[in-house]
């Protein structure tokens, strides 16, 4: 099993997450203030692979030490990217956020 976790900017963290945890985090972020309106998910393989999303739908995608900034169009797109992350489809995510 791949190691993964979710962490909110407000400090909450949970290990070994699934899609339900991401859906809850997206719901939570929409009601947070701007200062704490962010969370990130990390999937650890040989490297730590992270997607961080902010309340304004801006994302930071960090794979193999390379960071890409991306502006999502809506929360559905964010959800899809996180699903791909949990499935370790890093190449698909990279092609979508270029």
List keywords for this structure.
98 residues; alpha+beta; 6-stranded antiparallel sheet; 3 helices
Q: How would you explain this protein's 3D organization?
A:
33% of the residues lie in helices and 36% in strands. The chain has 98 residues and is of the alpha+beta class. The chain has one domain (3-96). It has a 6-stranded antiparallel sheet, covered by helices on one side. The longest helix has 13 residues, at 19-31. The termini are far apart.
What's a concise summary of this model?
With 98 residues, this protein is an alpha+beta fold.
Question: Tally the helices: what do you get?
Answer: 3
Mean pLDDT, as a whole number?
Answer: 93
Largest sheet features: 6 strands, antiparallel
Shape: globular
Helix content: 25-40%
What percent strand? 35-45%
Helix-strand pattern: EEHEEEEHH
The overall number of domains is 1
Structure classification: alpha+beta
- Give the radius of gyration: 12 Å
Between the first and last Cα atoms, what is the distance in angstroms? 29 Å
Instruction: Please report the total strand number as a whole number.
Output: 6
How are strands sequenced across the largest beta sheet? 2-1-3-4-5-6
Provide the low-confidence segments as ranges. Answer: none
């Amino acid at each position: 099993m791949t190691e993964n976790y979710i962490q909110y900017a407000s400090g909450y963290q949970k290990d070994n997450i699934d899609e339900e945890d991401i859906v809850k985090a997206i719901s939570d972020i929409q009601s947070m203030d701007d200062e704490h309106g962010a969370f990130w998910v990390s999937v650890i393989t040989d490297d730590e692979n992270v997607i961080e999303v902010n309340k304004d739908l801006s994302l930071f995608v960090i794979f193999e030490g390379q960071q890409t900034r991306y502006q999502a169009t809506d929360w559905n797109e964010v959800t899809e990217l996180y699903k791909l992350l949990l499935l370790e489809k890093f190449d698909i995510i990279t092609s979508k956020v270029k």
